Amino acid sequence: MADARDIVCALAARDEAGRIANVLRQVARAGVRRVAICANGCTDGTVAEARRVADTLRVELAVVEFAQALGHDAPRAIAAMEAWRRWPDSAAVLMVDADWQGSFGPMLADFLQDALRHPEAITGIWGRVRAADLDRRWQRIVRRAGAPASLRPFLLPQVIPLSAFARVSPRFVASPGLFFALTRRQGIPWRVYEAWDGRLVGNPAREASAQARVLDVLREDARAAEIALFGGSGDPPPLWPGRRDWREVEAWMSCIRGPHLCREHHDLV
């Protein structure tokens, strides 16, 4: 069975110079030795700090930088693609946030061990949305799609086997609802790690306006998932518009070439 050294971590970071060191240390504590970062319009020393800490930890680091910030979740897709492109021999991609605080490394190690015991499945975590109607909507979506009702496919951490990217392009990571729908349409199983305790992972408090924007995005994701899964069309919808702008993501990914990134992988979904 593979171990954490066979996993590559994908991080999206925007002005996280004060927090990214802790995230890299905790990821390394969990056994991960490869990290791909999408620096999303950073104006501070995020990249320099990431390189300094990675060198200290002896972690391999790949960085993709964008001068202007991309739309919501788009940097995750870039980081996932770069992880796959840079280390195609990896078993899976681990998605985490670059602003996590606290000593979550041991809990992450347990999460990875659990995920690696199910190498064909995408492993996520359970959670709740701060809007009861939206949470019930997501519960219906995941249950109807044949996934555990407690799963929330937009929450991190998440482990995605690289075999999944051969069937559904990592560009769709930029829309978690659509990625969930398309992977289920391809028969890729999703499972939930119930032991994850979000209380042990600190995040900076968001303002009410920012929380409202996140809920709006989750509603868009739910709509995209519903159309892709239950809309009755044989063709998947395009990357969902609304509050996201995909042009930079598509332009960057269209330039990626490599022996493992053949045209079929891009055109399949």
UniProtKB/TrEMBL annotation:
Matching SUPFAM superfamilies: Nucleotide-diphospho-sugar transferases
Source domain of life: Bacteria
Name of protein: Glycosyl transferase family 2
Originating species: Alicyclobacillus acidocaldarius subsp. acidocaldarius (strain ATCC 27009 / DSM 446 / BCRC 14685 / JCM 5260 / KCTC 1825 / NBRC 15652 / NCIMB 11725 / NRRL B-14509 / 104-IA)
